[in-house]
Amino acid sequence: HNETLTVSTNHSTSATVELSFTVTAAPTYTITANPTSKNFGSLAVGYSAPAAQTVTITNTGNSSVTLTQPSSTNYTIGALSTTTLAAGGTATFTVAPKAGLAVGAHNETLTVSTNHSTSATVALSFAVTAVPTYTITANPTSKNFGSLTVGYSAPAAQTVTITNTGNSSVTLTQLSSTNYTIGTLSTTALAANGTATFTVTPKTDLAVGNYNETLTVSTDHSTSATVALSFAVTA
Hints:
Layout: E1 2-8, E2 14-20, E3 31-34, E4 37-44, E5 53-59, E6 65-66, E7 75-77, E8 84-85, E9 90-97, E10 104-105, E11 108-113, E12 119-129, E13 136-139, E14 142-149, E15 158-164, E16 170-171, E17 180-182, E18 189-190, E19 195-202, E20 209-210, E21 213-218, E22 224-234
Parallel strand pairs: 4-12, 14-22
Antiparallel strand pairs: 1-2, 3-5, 5-9, 6-8, 7-9, 10-12, 11-12, 13-15, 15-19, 16-18, 17-19, 20-22, 21-22
């Protein structure tokens, strides 16, 4: 706002004064983060730290601000590329989960602050899972069908239950036998703690002799459970 002020006399003379005044906007000190969230997924215990990701801080206010270096317990935070930001200026830093974190979810809100009590946040998430296990067990672990004489009728089929005792899903392989009739597995895909059943009984018309056999139920992860089968045919 510029203006010339004139003071005149009754003798056609005058004096002037140049006046000036500037009105400025109220100072603002806002900052934003981009992105506002970072999800590093999940990894099993013993993982290598995921690649560091970059976060950009922008001064969206109309006045300079000074940033405070952020810190974290569970994440490695890189140094700010600059701490003094003019209006419209940007600064960057990197972030990555630390190695060696315990099993569990590691969710955290990272705060970048200014010297004017303003801030921007980034929601960080990362999970550590247990090492996958693929064990299964059979119940019972043995079946004794006794003994019968030649010409016998097949004994009643007995049920075996397979339980996934690991912490990860497995796929079972349908099993077979030369001397025993094996029923179809009730399911082949087992989640952790899931169960599947099948039936087993000696075949008919077996010759005189002992039919001891170890029945093996296998998974797609090279693990297995066994059932000891026994049956005798007498003269």
